[in-house]
Design brief:
mainly alpha; globular
Amino acid sequence: MKKPRLSFWQIFNMSFGFLGIQFGFALQNANASRILQTFGADVEHLSWFWLVAPLTGMIIQPIIGHYSDKTWGKLGRRRPFFLAGAIMTAIALVLLPNAAMFASVIPAMFIGGGFLMITDASINIAMQPFRALVADNLPDEQHTIGFTTQTFLIGVGSVVGSWLPYMLAKAGVLAVSESGGVPDNVKWSFYIGAAVMLLCILWTVFTTKEYSPEELASFEEEKKASAPTEKSTNLWYDFVHMPKAMLQLGTVQFFSWIALFGMWVYTTPAIAQHIYHVPQGDASSALFNEAGDWVGILFGVYNAVAMVFALALAPIARRIGRKLTHGLALAIGGVSLLSFYVIGNPTTLLLPMLGIGIAWASILSMPYVMVAGALPAHKMGIYMGIFNFFITLPQIVNGIFGGPMVKYLFNGQAIFAIVFSGACMLVAAVSVIFIQEKR
């Protein structure tokens, strides 16, 4: 017996919680550095704060995947974890912009860094089971539409979450704090983000059914999987004996996320120096702030493109195959990043953001589509968690070595970090050729 196909709205409801998760994640990405600087963090130390995100993801996601595989209760096995993660994230989102309240005990900068760590850990607890839930509930032929629906909702959450402080400021909420602290428009954005996350997660919890272990065992796909043994339930054993296709996809992921992390960290200084001609080290001028504002618009554009293009991935993959679809998307993204070097007009940068949006849509969905078919069903959670290593490790590597590369190898010119990111994404595109996809 095969898993029954689900309707579009069943798939949509199952993934709707991801919109809330990404809403909160986008708020954090766009505003955490600003908040930490408000509390006194130096610019050169911000990347060290941001290493918290991949480090917590590397540790937490495999653990959550391991235990969610073995959990079963009234809420199923995945839903208890992303509900608990959503509650913890909502609390952290409310507290992060209010870290100054605890300054009498510990400097607000460290309190803020602590809440940033809690937010990242909680988001990872909520996020990991969503990937496994799609693989649990959908037959292989619907994996593509399942993961691309998640990507569409990720795009919606990213765009609205990133632009919310700006929209609140335009609506009249104070954008400057008279006391020099975090402004009201940022605080209210985080409060709204906490509420949106909880509501979206609750929607998925109450509208989605999970198959019991007995039901999963009855499906033909599950019967073909190897029965778990006492030896194979060890986390380290699973890591060492990961499927070959997963390791091959890991190479693609590694270079893709080296590129993405570099883009997120260095786009603002690269554009400020290379296109706005802001002197190196000048981060207080009106021109630098103008460049920063424009980068926010550009990032919103690539997320919006990803949101729309995600809907086209499934029919494209059916026509030309999953590997070719992902390889072409990465190649387009790599060329788009390289084009930053030859562009001299800020408005023209909208064009490469279209290509980056295409690559981002594919990165968020196609690797999971391809890896899901190669994994044993009774270990879907743990292997989805281990697969996250290939996302977090490259970010840690870039976070540690990216700064020295820019300083010593690129002579402080951040535009070459963007060029390096483009080259890494092209390497990822070529690496797709070597994947032996299992259906």
